Amino acid sequence: MTHTLHRQGSVESLKEDYIVLIMGGDIPFDIYRRRFHKKFPRIYEMVKKVFLNLGILKLLRIIKKAKPDGSYGNPVFNNKKELVSYLKELKERNTGKSVVVSGLFDEVNDCLKEINLSPHTVQFSLGTFGKKELLPKEEILEITTMCGHHMISPNLVEKLASDIENGKISHEEAVRVMSEQCVCGVFNKGRACKLMEALVNRLYSLSYSKTWTAY
Amino acid sequence: MRINLEKCIGCMECIPYCPAGAIIATGNKCTVNEDRCFECYVCLTSGICPVDALEKVPLKWPRILRHLFSSVAMLHKQTGIDGRGTAEMKTNDVTGRYRHGEAGFTVDVGRPGIGTTFEDVEKISMTVAKVGVEFEQMNPVTKLMTDKTTGKLRDDIKKERILSCVLEFKTEDAKALPVINALKKVSKSVNTVFSVGCICRCRPDGTIPVKTMLDEAGIFYRPNGKINIGLGRPLAP
């Protein structure tokens, strides 16, 4: 999955958007499952039962809600200082796991230099090809691409913008609704709040209809 | 996914949640356009329906692929990875998937948020295959190929609609530009969008050969991207 590669937005806005992914390597999940089953058969059966009853998505949502930062392992930062401090800790722990940082190349490289690290492999986004006329407005994509798997529908963003304009909900409430759809937890709520504010201003200063309609 | 019409109260609250735009108002009820539906279950898991009218439909082959390539939490058994089923460069410091002298590519077909059929995925895979690329074995789309040298996919899956999938391949540095040109060419004949990622192993002196090549050829790339910072412990020396 390349779910944090194609985030869109201005450089200024992206300066508040850094995501850290920690990956265990290419050892198939099935091997872990079998090892776990062998060591703890009773716990395995219990966990399996919970998974089957709830469904994995519901379970991930519960885990996500239970964590104070609202994520289940993919921290999102809106400033370099916190990013540096987190990366420093990861370096000191020396777990042997892969660590990937998504963000502005120049800014992330500055952070890496501070802790004497350098890029091992990089991935560039060459942008979007094909029938671009199918895409929603740029300012909506800036929000929806923060959930790389696109669990946040452009229609939902427009509907929430309409609700904000009509005084039904606050910006924060709208962002909460959107972030709940992003199960991976890489949706940057702080940045989304600012983008939502700009979107509402833009949509409704251009005398758009105040009532949301699906397109 | 379907909507139980006996339960549906026609509040229309679920409509904006659907990434496929597959939920439509029919009279005073909502229904799901089965052809458009990605089976991503976003409508269901959002918990938006006040009367639990959204119901899963048992999925058989090949329709099950819609769910596999549209839901986030589905595990791709062949690769052991959830989401779109590949670790690509994220674990390159451990796996050595992309080495010096090679350019890696990820083509996210259907992304951002438009969706695709496997018919369009095959158009792209067969186009880049002609340039001479090596498709990644630990990738669920490669597993659906009947011929990994031509990029041909199974015939029985072509009509299935999915939210997105990642075509993943690598080639020698020198072929990176021809690959990008091939992608530009095929972009005119697909009925969707695709997002392209270009991967490169950094040199010990800090240079990034693919970046130099992109700069020299004047090819656009975003100022943001992904960096594997090399903390992973290699599986083999």
Structure described in brief:
Chain A is mostly helical and 215 residues long. Chain A contains 10 helices and 4 strands.
Q: Please report which band the strand proportion of chain A falls in: under 5%, 5-15%, 15-25%, 25-35%, 35-45% or over 45%.
A: 5-15%
What class do helices, strands and sheet pairing of chain A give? mainly alpha
- Count the strands of chain A? 4
Q: What pair of chains forms the biggest interface?
A: A-B, 86 and 85 residues
Shape of chain B: elongated
Poorly predicted runs of chain A are 25-32, 66-72
Helix count from the secondary structure assignment of chain B: 6
Q: Note the overall shape of chain A.
A: globular
Number of helical segments with 4 or more residues of chain A: 10
Distance between the termini of chain B: 48 Å
CATH architecture of the domain at 84-217 in chain B: 2-Layer Sandwich
Write down the CATH class of the domain at 84-217 in chain B: Alpha Beta
Give me the side-by-side strand order of the main sheet of chain A.
2-1-3
The major beta sheet of chain A can be summarized as:
3 strands, antiparallel
Number of strand elements of chain B = 13
Describe this structure in words.
The complex is a heterodimer of chains A (215) and B (237). By secondary structure, chain A is mainly α. Chain A has a domain of 77 residues. Chain A has 10 helices and 4 strands; from the N terminus they run αβαααβαβαβαααα. In chain A, helix 2 crosses helix 3, helix 5 packs across helix 6 and helix 9 crosses helix 10. Chain A is globular and about 55 Å long. About 7% of the residues of chain A have low confidence. Chain B has a domain of 134 residues: Alpha-Beta Plaits (2-Layer Sandwich), CATH 3.30.70. The radius of gyration of chain B is 20 Å and the shape is elongated. Strand 3 of chain A pairs antiparallel with strand 13 of chain B, so a sheet runs across the interface.
